[in-house]
């Protein structure tokens, strides 16, 4: 059974994988100013995703073990 937080987590992980693929293309190719700007935007988005993942994981730590 899937829950809303787990679906959000999966979506964020999928987005991270997509960003990683784009970064690999950036690393392999020529680096125009536009591509560098896009790379920096992806870095920022990865930080946002990391924060969101931490927020989603936090409630799980608050549930006591029964």
Keyphrases for this structure?
66 residues, mainly alpha
Main β-sheet: number of strands, strand sense, barrel status?
A: none
Q: Kindly state the number of beta strands.
A: 0
* Beginning-to-end CA distance, first to last residue: 20 Å
What number is the mean pLDDT?
A: 87
Provide the gyration radius in Å.
16 Å
> Can you tell me the overall shape?
elongated
- Series of H and E elements: HH
Structural class computed from helices and strand pairing: mainly alpha
Put simply, the count of helices is 2
- Unreliable spans are none
Strand content: under 5%
- Give the helix level as a range of percent: over 70%
Account of the protein in words:
With 66 residues, the protein is mostly helical. The protein has a domain at 31-58. The chain is 83% helix and 0% strand. The chain contains two helices and no strands. The protein has helices at residues 4-28, 33-62. The longest helix is centred in the last third of the chain and has 30 residues, at 33-62. 0% of the residues are buried. The model has no long low-confidence stretch (mean pLDDT 87).
